[in-house]
Amino acid sequence: MSKERARRRAVREAEAARERVVRQRRLARRQRTRTLVRRLTPQWRRGRTGRLGRRSRGERAAIVGLSLAALFGIWTFVDDLALRLVLVVLLLLVLPAIVVIALDRRI
User: Fold this and answer.
1) Same structural domain, 38 and 59
2) Contact 59, 103 (CB under 8 A)
3) What is the CA radius of gyration of the chain?
4) Cα 53 to chain centroid, rounded
5) What confidence score (pLDDT) does residue 107 get?
6) Per-residue pLDDT tens digits for 50-105
7) Which of 11, 47, 61, 94 is 20 to 30 A away from residue 35, measured at CA?
8) Model pTM score
9) Domain interval for residue 5
10) Taking a C-beta distance cutoff of 8 angstroms, is the pair 56, 84 a contact?
11) Coil, strand, or helix at residue 90?
């Protein structure tokens, strides 16, 4: 009787060992696939990045709105085309400095 139990236990242990090996191979394959997919997919930065990411939605809307108002004012009140173009280029060049001066939080 005990020899029969020992034989059955040995069969069960051998079967469990085979299942463990199969499971480990499956896990290793899954891990290799995950690392390959992670390596091949592009990484997206999450959250606020870049220059405009520092500003709130309202601040960005104010920047765009005031810039458009200034452009509208330039095109409405200035008659000379060359002067209009110079003022628009000047506005676009000075706009980042104005934004930093007006909205910078580093005090």
Assistant:
1) no
2) yes
3) 34
4) 11
5) 44
6) 555 567 888 889 889 999 999 999 999 999 999 999 999 999 999 988 888 887 76
7) 47
8) 0.48
9) 1-42
10) no
11) helix
